[in-house]
Amino acid sequence: MTEPRTLGELKRGGAPAGPSPKVKDEMRANLLRKLAAKEGLFPGILGYDETVVPRVVNAVLSRHNMILLGLRGQAKSRLLRSLTTLLDPKIPAIAGCEIHDDPFRPLCKRCRDLMAERGDETPIAFLTPDDRYVEKLATPDVTIADIIGDVDPIRAARGGHDLGSELTMHYGLLPRAHRGIFALNELPDLAGRIQVGLFNILQEGDVQIKGYPIRLPLDLCLVFTANPEDYTARGKIITPLKDRIGSEVRTHYPATLEQGVAITQQEAWTERGVELRIPRFVREVAEGVAFAARRDKKIDKRSGVSQRLPITVLENAVSNAERRGLLKGEAPVVPRVSDIYSAIPSLTGKFELEYEGELMGAENVAREMIREAVAETFSVYLGSADLKSVVGYFEAGGSLKLEEDASSADLLAQLKRVPGLLDHTASVAVGKSDPAPLLAAAGEFVLEGLYGQKKIGRSEDRGFVAPERRETELDLERLERLRRMKKQVN
Q1: pTM of structure
Q2: Which domains are delineated in the chain?
């Protein structure tokens, strides 16, 4: 069945003889239907099912405008865009109208004149949810004309209209979002005098364009985002505006490592057209870096550590493994812990340092966080494993220098020198019958984990060696034995 192309066809097709429901009523009705049918809400949003999503649901059910407060990289913009899933698949509008006028309740002068002239022959178009979503990033140079509108002298000149005519109106983004959702990102960046321009639409539901004694009763759902910490001194949300926003919803970073891994797995670009296997422990180390950064005192808590950090780290680690696989002619491509160290360039720009961190340097801080993440992941998989034979090899003077771009065969040949090392790969779900790249990655993880827990050390010249701390303890034990022997002799 073809869609109606005129108002008359729309009426004959059984359309309700009256205006469409208000946007907030429409969103509420669709949300209630989804909840009753136990449908999933907000696809692609992970980790918020028990915290953020219920609050957003309450705001929609209350027909509130809302603001999402959260640090960078907490999926605020994605959550706003997913609100379009609560809009009807299609609604009618007068074709060519800048503000998507309802054919049964036109607002603009052009549409009123058109309907008076053509009646049931007025052309109709249909709007999809994406057509009804308008988003703007607030920047200091945004003007009231951008948001609300202004006089358009060029339109007046071309049409021969008086400057006071409604036909000379230039509609801003708010009117153009009529009958839809208007999203404003980073609200504090909007100048205070521009924020004042939002008072009427939030409270009274209308706007007045400069120079015209006409109030446009817009049908909108307004949503905003902001950082709760004013760490950049960019600006603030003025109090009367905050008072007019119905609901304030706080977002957060993943509460558990499992949630973080799931988000990174969803977002990271790992489909490279090559045979790729990413071990679970590598994913957990990449995610653990973000968790370590968020609690590190050397990193500014107010700026946050974006969820983009583990995503870019994993992508870069996979790229390093992909490059090595091409050079060595290996398949499958398997990233190792050493590839995460190679991903430091994708990590250092994702956090802001406190004074102590500035003294250390971003790269050194990043290395420390990777080591901490490896140690924590190692304790999960091999915390109770008996690795005395492996540690003993190094305490007896053994060393092992692993080249970053070594082939899996060369790496395995090196790892086999350490007694019992490869016997522990089963703890990370890697067996000796698995492909060499996977076995090499697991064996290297055991060594990196021991280094992360300071059970073995690492030297620039010799690679993995006995830990300096352990050597000091042995020296003290020898001195103590000598003292006891001397006492016995005396």
Answers
A1: 0.87
A2: 7-250 (3.40.50.300), 257-471 (no CATH)
